[in-house]
Structure formats: structure tokens, C-alpha cells
Automatic annotation (TrEMBL), chain A:
InterPro entries xrefs: MetI-like, MetI-like_sf
Alphabetized Gene3D superfamilies for the sequence: MetI-like
Annotated family: Belongs to the binding-protein-dependent transport system permease family. CysTW subfamily.
Cleavable signal peptide: 1-17
A single GO cellular-component term on record: plasma membrane
Topology term for the membrane: Multi-pass membrane protein
Localisation: Cell membrane
Organism: Azorhizobium oxalatiphilum
Major location category of this protein: membrane
The protein, known as: ABC transmembrane type-1 domain-containing protein
Transmembrane portions of the chain: 58-82, 94-110, 145-173, 193-216, 251-270
Keyword Lipid metabolism (UniProt): no
Keyword Ion transport set for record: no
Entry-linked SUPFAM superfamilies: MetI-like
From TrEMBL, chain B:
Keywords: Cell inner membrane, Cell membrane, Membrane, Transmembrane, Transmembrane helix, Transport
One GO term describing the cellular component: plasma membrane
InterPro entries in the record: MetI-like, MetI-like_sf
Domain of life: Bacteria
Upper lineage: Bacteria, Pseudomonadati, Pseudomonadota, Alphaproteobacteria, Hyphomicrobiales
Its membrane topology: Multi-pass membrane protein
This protein's record includes keyword Transmembrane: yes
Transmembrane annotation, as ranges: 12-37, 72-94, 106-130, 136-159, 180-205, 237-256
Compartmental location: Cell inner membrane; Cell membrane
Any Gene Ontology biological process: transmembrane transport
Family: Belongs to the binding-protein-dependent transport system permease family.
One family name in Pfam for this protein: BPD_transp_1
UniProt-recorded name of the protein: ABC transporter permease
């Protein structure tokens, strides 16, 4: 094996890591089909009861609400992130470029707790938004933002903004500016150039950004937990509650398995639905 | 040539849009900073007086200092292990073909889309099943799996940009593969390795959701301690700690950008 030095040496640690992950996922899958024994951490015999319980309106409703929140968040984030990504890629000043890039990235590295806590101070009844609006005499009683879907979505957009910006910026930076110049020299106005050249060519980034934002929103826990305060239930908060308040780990596992299946289904669906567009921007 | 008025208006609208987005991103950081220096225990706006006592409390609160220590332990192990594992695999991804390569790549990058609560729950159950104690080992393994995709990507991008002729030159001059690796390949990869390790370290130190599942009281990391604090107290101590977090993270990213070029690492600008 002279042509492939170090292959085994380099692959084995990664194989161990992959094995650990597969083991963890297999453990969830196995628990999902076991019975819950109240008062005991050990699961009982094999059963399908966990998945039957999922069909009850209460739990099915949480799933629908979660998907809805993920969709709204992904789309709003796309609209908010696009101008920022565009400015990062196209700005001619290096200082401005670095400032925008670091501003866009810092929230991603802060972690969900710090970010969500900050949003509590912004959204609360005596928080920033309500104090400013009241100070200006625009409202008399505070607008309820905490414990509402709107509040959760606002904070979630903030959470998914960095990754969306990175993906859009990556796509935009690979567009050859000559295409836009050509369109302009042929007489197209800036709006037309954007709509017929830039936007279609950035489609791969849009597809990647929206699907990733969807997955990240689905994965978010601290934000719906702290801002929703139990009144905006999502799959993540439900799983935590089942595990650590009722110790019903088999049902929590069944929810996780279903959530995972749903995530992959949505990712596949989005990809299939948008693949004609992606091909359009692929050359 | 002056651009027509409509074009200039459009450019202005674009600048305003970017300004609003930047304001939206920075708003929580600004508000949390104002709150951190407010002397009142309740969160109110505008702040009534200046005080640094919340910083004093944040630094003296024992759960935060033990969380900080635990976090450093987990981060040091997890990011370093992830760097070794990720570099090896990125190397293999770039250079070799073997059976199962695609599957392994799919598994190892899957934590990018698998919810962290699922991974946390999975390792919690796995640890219970193999009767492992809920110590640091479980937390470290969970973090390695979570940050691995970022290390792999960072190193892989550097490998792609590496000029293979330098390695060929070394080999043709008689260097054995091991020598080429250590004297040519790894030094050339250094920026990618450093940025990969830095990303992994920051992400691991700040990871919350999976950590909430796999940590116990004795292994609680800082974000978990912070989450528990918010549930018990409503004073601005956490705001003070958040300010420290924001400043340190922004500084680290600025340094990383200065020396490594975040744009290139993240693929948002073309490397030359």
C-alpha cells in the first residue's frame, strides 16, 4: 500500500467518532420502541405505544406549529440576510467588509443562552422595545412579545441570521461580476440586473441557506424555552420536558426519531422542489 | 458620468436596508450592555444609574466559576481531539478513495443538520445503556462529534488550496511520506488547523443544548450554569456576564480575521 500512506492511521479515529454518533442514534431508535415504566429510568418491553401517542392532537399540533415556525423563520431570515450578504461580498472598503463580516458572525459564536437572554431584555414588558415605545407616547400598555410566537420568531431570526448570511455570501462571491456588467451594458437597469442575473445565480445559496435555517430553527431549544416560556411549545422543548420533568425517555426518544425523520424529509423536499432553480444557477 | 437619480435612490435604499440589518444584529448586544451597567436589580429602560456590581457578582458566583472551569476542560479536550480526528479525515477525504468514504463523510457531517437535543439525548441514553458514569468523558465525546464538521471543513478547504507540487518536490528529493507530511504539508496547513481549532473551541465552549442533556451537576459547563441562573434569578448578573462573552468573542473573531482571513475560511471570498 505504498500509494496510500497513513490511510488506516488517519481513518481510524474518524471511524471511532462516526461509530459513537451511530451508537447514540441507535440508542435513541431502540428506546423509541420501548415501553415507559413510570418511576423507573429503565425502559420496559417492546411496544409501538410511543408512536401511537404521537398521533394525538396535542403532540401532532406541536409538530405542525414547529414546522410552521421553522418555515416563517427561514423565510424572514432569507429576506433579512440577503442585503447583508450582498454588502459583505460587494463592498469595496476592506474595513467595512471586515466590520460587516464580524458583526454578522459574532452572534453565531455567542451561543444560544447569551443571545436569548439579551432578547428577553429587548422584548420584555418593561424591556427595551416597550420602554422606547412608551417613552415616545406611541403605546399606553406594553405590547406582549415575551411568551408569544412573534417574540420567538424574532429571536430565532437573529439566531439563524449568521449561517444564512455565510451561505448567501458564499454563493454571491462565486458569481462572476462580468455577467452583471454585461447585462448593464445591454441596457438593463439595476433592478432588472438583480432580478434576472444576480438573484437566479445566487439560487444555490438561497436553497442551502433556507434549508439550513430550517434545520437550525428546528434544533433551537434555548430560544423557544426561554422566550416562549412553555407557551410556545416546539418539538425541542417538548422533548426536554418529557425527559427531565416526566423522565419518559422512551417517548422523548420517539419524538426525536420522528423529528429527525421530519427534518430529513423537509430537507429532501426542499431540495427536490428547488432543484430546477438550482440547476439554473449552477453553471 | 452621473448615475440617474433612480439608481442613486436605489443605492441609498440598499444602504439603509444594510444599516437596519446591522442595527437588528447589534440591538440585543447594546441593550444587554446598558442593562449590565444599570444599578437597579430589575431590568428597566432607560437605566437609572451606573454600577459595576453585577460584574462583581458574576465573577464571584460559584456556579459560574465552576462552569467556566468545567467548560475549559471540556473545550480543551474536545477541540483538540476534534482537530486530530478532523485533520486526519479531511486529509483522507482530499486524497484517497476507499469503500465507505461517502457514508463516513455523511455520518460525520450530519451533526450540522441533526438537532443538538437529539444528539444530546442520544449520548445520554447511550451512556446509560453502557453504564458509563455521567462524567466528563460523555460530555467530551458529545462535543467532539458536534464540532467535527467545522474542523473538517476548515482543514479540507486549506488542503484544497494547498499547492500539491510542493509535496511532490519534497518526495522527488527523497523525503519519505512521513517527512513530507511533517515538514511540508502540516506547516502549510497551519492557518487552516489554527482556525479549525479556534472555531471548534469557541463552539464547544458555548455549546448549550446538547450539554444540558449530557452534563450533571459536577460537569456543568458555563452556558448550562447561565441557563440555570436565569431560571432562578431575574437580576442583571447574566447581562454582565453576557457583555464579557460578547467582548471576548468579538475580539477572538477579530484576531482570527486579522491573521487567518475569515472570509477565505468561510468561503465568502475567493482565495488567491
Amino acid at each position: 500500500m505504498k500509494t496510500r500512506p497513513f490511510l488506516a492511521l488517519f481513518v481510524s479515529p474518524a471511524a471511532l467518532a462516526a461509530l459513537a454518533l451511530v451508537g447514540a442514534l441507535a440508542a435513541i431508535l431502540q428506546y423509541a420502541f420501548r415501553a415507559f415504566v413510570p418511576g423507573s429510568m429503565e425502559p420496559g418491553g417492546l411496544t409501538l405505544a410511543n408512536f401511537e401517542a404521537l398521533l394525538r392532537p396535542l403532540y401532532a399540533g406541536v409538530f405542525l406549529q414547529t414546522v410552521w415556525i421553522c418555515l416563517i423563520t427561514a423565510l424572514v431570515t432569507l429576506v433579512v440576510a440577503y442585503p447583508l450578504a450582498y454588502a459583505i461580498v460587494r463592498s469595496r472598503s476592506v474595513t467595512l467588509k471586515s466590520f460587516l463580516l464580524i458583526t454578522a458572525l459574532t452572534p453565531m459564536f455567542l451561543g444560544e443562552v447569551v443571545r436569548t437572554y439579551s432578547w428577553i431584555i429587548v422584548l420584555g414588558n418593561s424591556g427595551f422595545i416597550n420602554s422606547v415605545l412608551r417613552g415616545l407616547g406611541l403605546i399606553e400598555r406594553p405590547i406582549q412579545l415575551m411568551f408569544t410566537t412573534t417574540g420567538v420568531v424574532i429571536a430565532l431570526v437573529h439566531v439563524t441570521l449568521p449561517i444564512m448570511t455565510i451561505m448567501l455570501a458564499a454563493a454571491l462571491s462565486h458569481i462572476d461580476a462580468a455577467y452583471e456588467k454585461a447585462a448593464t451594458s445591454l441596457g438593463a437597469g439595476p433592478v432588472r440586473v438583480f432580478l434576472t442575473v444576480t438573484l437566479p445565480l445566487s439560487m444555490p445559496g438561497i436553497v442551502a441557506g433556507v434549508t439550513t435555517a430550517f434545520a437550525w430553527t428546528f434544533s433551537a431549544f434555548a430560544t423557544p424555552q426561554m422566550i416562549g416560556g412553555g407557551r410556545v411549545p416546539m418539538v425541542s422543548t417538548l422533548i426536554y420536558q418529557l425527559g427531565f420533568a416526566s423522565f419518559n425517555f422512551p417517548f422523548a426518544a420517539a419524538l426525536s426519531v420522528t423529528g429527525l425523520a421530519l427534518t430529513f424529509a423537509v430537507l429532501a423536499l426542499a431540495k427536490a422542489a428547488l432543484s430546477p432553480l438550482e440547476r439554473m444557477g449552477a453553471h | 458620468m452621473r448615475r440617474p437619480l433612480s439608481h442613486r435612490l436605489l443605492g441609498l435604499a440598499g444602504k439603509i436596508a444594510v444599516g437596519l440589518v446591522v442595527a437588528f444584529i447589534l440591538l440585543p448586544a447594546v441593550v444587554v450592555t446598558m442593562s449590565a451597567f444599570n444599578d437597579k436589580a430589575i431590568m428597566n429602560f432607560p437605566p437609572t444609574g451606573f454600577s459595576t456590581r453585577w460584574f462583581a457578582r458574576a465573577f464571584s458566583y460559584s456556579d459560574f466559576s465552576s462552569g467556566f472551569r468545567n467548560g475549559l476542560i471540556v473545550t480543551a479536550f474536545a477541540s483538540t481531539i476534534a482537530l486530530v480526528v478532523g485533520t486526519g479525515f479531511a486529509f483522507v477525504l482530499d486524497r484517497y478513495e476507499f469503500r465507505g468514504k461517502k457514508a463516513m463523510e455523511a455520518i460525520l457531517t450530519s451533526p450540522l443538520v441533526i438537532p443538538h437535543f437529539t444528539i444530546g439525548l442520544g449520548f445520554l441514553i447511550l451512556a446509560a445503556q453502557i453504564h458509563a458514569a455521567r462524567g466528563f468523558a460523555v460530555v467530551v465525546v458529545t462535543h467532539v462529534v458536534l464540532v467535527l464538521p467545522f474542523v473538517m471543513r476548515s482543514v479540507y478547504v486549506s488542503l484544497r488550496n494547498l499547492d500539491a507540487r510542493l509535496e511532490l518536490a519534497a518526495a522527488s528529493l527523497g523525503a519519505r511520506p512521513g517527512r513530507t507530511l511533517f515538514t511540508i504539508t502540516l506547516p502549510l496547513l497551519l492557518p487552516g488547523l489554527v482556525s479549525g481549532w479556534l472555531f471548534a473551541a469557541i463552539l464547544s465552549f458555548n455549546e448549550f443544548t446538547a450539554s444540558l442533556f449530557v452534563t450533571a451537576q459536577a460537569t456543568q459547563t458555563l452556558p448550562v450554569a447561565m441557563y440555570n441562573y436565569v431560571r432562578e434569578y431575574a437580576d442583571p448578573t447574566l447581562a454582565a456576564l453576557s457583555v464579557v462573552y460578547i467582548v471576548v468573542t468579538a475580539l477572538l473573531l477579530t484576531i482570527a480575521n486579522r491573521f487567518l482571513g475569515l472570509g477565505k475560511v468561510l468561503n465568502v471570498e475567493h482565495g488567491r
